[in-house]
Specification:
This protein is of the alpha/beta class. The protein is 38% helix and 20% strand. Bound molecules: beta-D-ribofuranose and calcium ion. The site of calcium ion has 8 residues, from loops.
Length: 306
């Protein structure tokens, strides 16, 4: 929360288990005013990510927040999914209530366009949790509205860590490298949170008991989602919470150490790989996190009484 009130945000997302935890945290955090949620294809197809957004809003009693379906695939190529991690329903089989209202009849891009034009320039930030396809379309189709975005905070890429979509690339960048390059090299300031940081924020089975004990709807559902994130990976002692890092960067930037790097995105040899080049776009990149404090902040945000 700033002196000017909560940060006004639109969440662009492909839920996805870690997306869902991030969304629950944002909806339960007074420092964030979530004005719309837009779905994009990524972890799973667009019909499913859109349905999951509607269900998450319903679970939090927020039928007043508009949501819409965006791009069904990347700007070029076939795209990729992450069914092995997130399950065929994107949420590891965790049930959600039916949406209170259907998705907005406009596309995700049209919904973002309308909100950006209605808000003072620079006052709305985008929290991007999936492939950057919707934002690239908006930049192409509505450049005036796009330039009114105050800032984009995006989970994506890797600097020194091995990739999770091939050796060199991270999933969100690899799923639509062209879109990622357009957004990183575009007119809106970007803060990027790569695997180097998101792999440090990890949930353990013990955390789940602590989380569930809060008893709030957000904490209870988040505990179920993270439990499902362990399913099939029972041999692992912890799981990374990639997308919640975006919400934490928005509300508690002091948890992170950032550096300005000049980057572009490889669209050829290793699609989605971040490359540091002298003429690249100057991006604020999170390279360090106080993981203990960040985890506390995440759990407290989910556990706070609404
Ligand atoms: C990113 O890829 C997706 O599977 C997660 O939801 C996260 O946004 C991590 O690489
Ligand atoms: Ca995601």
């Amino acid at each position: 929360m700033t002196a000017a009130g909560p940060m006004r945000v639109i969440i662009d997302t492909d839920p996805g288990l870690d997306d869902a935890v991030a969304i629950l945290h944002a909806l339960n955090t007074p420092a964030l005013a979530v004005e719309a949620v837009t779905a994009v294809a990524g972890n799973i197809g667009i019909a499913t990510t859109t349905r999951n957004v509607g269900g998450l809003l319903a679970a939090m009693g927020r039928g007043d927040i508009p949501y819409a379906a965006g791009a069904a695939g990347p700007l070029a190529g076939d795209g990729r999914t992450e069914v092995a991690i997130h399950g065929a329903d994107g949420l590891g089989g965790v049930p959600l209530p039916p949406a209170w209202v259907p998705p907005d009849s406009r596309s995700a891009m049209a919904l973002m366009d309308a909100h950006l034009r209605a808000a003072p320039a620079g006052s709305l930030c985008i929290l991007a949790l999936g492939p950057l396809t919707n934002l690239a379309h908006l930049a192409n189709e509505a450049p005036v509205a796009y330039a009114r975005i105050g800032r984009i905070i995006a989970m994506g890429g890797t600097i020194d860590e091995p990739g999770n979509a091939g050796r060199f690339a991270e999933f969100n960048m690899a799923a639509d490298p062209l879109a990622a390059r357009m957004v990183l090299c575009g007119p809106v300031p970007v803060t990027l949170i790569p695997l180097d940081v998101t792999r440090r924020l990890r949930a353990t089975p013990e955390d789940l008991d602590r989380l569930a004990a809060f008893g709030t709807p957000a904490a209870t559902l988040a505990a179920n989602l993270i439990r499902a994130y362990f399913a099939g990976h029972a041999e692992r002692s912890s799981r990374p919470l990639h997308d919640p890092c975006v919400m934490l960067m928005a509300v508690a930037p002091a948890l992170f150490g950032t550096e300005r790097l000049r980057l572009t995105v490889d669209c050829d040899a290793h699609p989605g790989r971040l490359v540091q080049v002298p003429h690249g776009a100057e991006i604020n990149v999170a390279l360090r996190i106080n993981a203990g404090q960040a985890l506390d902040r995440l759990w407290q945000g989910l556990g706070a009484a609404a």
